[in-house]
Amino acid sequence: MNYPFSIFVNTTDKFEDCWLPFFKLFSIYWPAYRGRIYLNTESKDFAYGDLDILSIKNAATTGNSASAWSQCLQAGISSVENEIILYMQEDYFLRAPVEHDVVMNFAIMMRNNEMDCIHLTDQHSAGPFEASVFDKLWLMGRKDFHKISCQAALWKKSVILQYIRKHENPWQFELYGTLRAQLMKHRFYTVSRDIYKENQREVIPYIFTGIIQGKWYGKVVGLFAKHDIRVDFYQRGFIGEKQRFAFLPRVRRKIKDFSRVSIFEILKMKYLNRRMSGL
Description:
Elements: E1 6-10, H1 19-29, E2 36-40, E3 52-55, H2 59-62, H3 69-78, E4 84-89, H4 100-112, E5 117-119, E6 129-130, E7 137-140, E8 153-156, H5 157-163, H6 170-182, E9 188-191, E10 211-212, E11 215-216, H7 219-226, H8 241-244, H9 247-257, H10 260-277
Parallel strand pairs: 1-2, 1-4, 2-3, 5-9
Antiparallel strand pairs: 4-8, 5-8, 6-7, 7-9, 10-11
């Protein structure tokens, strides 16, 4: 494909109510984008205006309309033709104009250099960071604990596929994927915090997760009203601030995130790395 990158919107048919708001806001705040958008549906089609949206319908590939999150992710990304992809999710609702030229330049830089991932927000990591020869970017340190994130990022398709494990849920993908990344030699970058900060200047300004624990996050209401987007909010209801920051759900999630399979793999990788370094 001639366009330097494709957009991959990870979703599920259960989040169909997000698609119209997502793409209406996309058409308003990113009109310069002319590439393909892959919508990782399970069985449904969706179209909006003149956007080049391809509904993946991954159930045909996985053989199961209720496949695990990572299995659907793997099937969806494998179907993308472009080597450079911009990962997003269906509830990342744009709220201001995207810096289109910056994203284009980053994608071209990835295509021409040894760069495997560029995180496009300041919401995924606090470092440590290292000096970078690339303008507007910082290199993420080898021990950075947030190398793998589901926030908006440019990825080389061949690289992200190396981190996906079919048994992992989204939080396990971030947690154990990062531990794997610390043992591998891929080069992860992030936007400079000296230039890009939430609510000041952002490459892709969006609400960081419009749905939490299956319920609407209150910040979407004003954004939707501003653009005459009508949604039946009562179908999902709203997440409360107490629920959003509740301690026990976070503890339960961490317990759920425990994966003997992933831990065994990481221990094996560490052992092999030690053997190789001792040769």
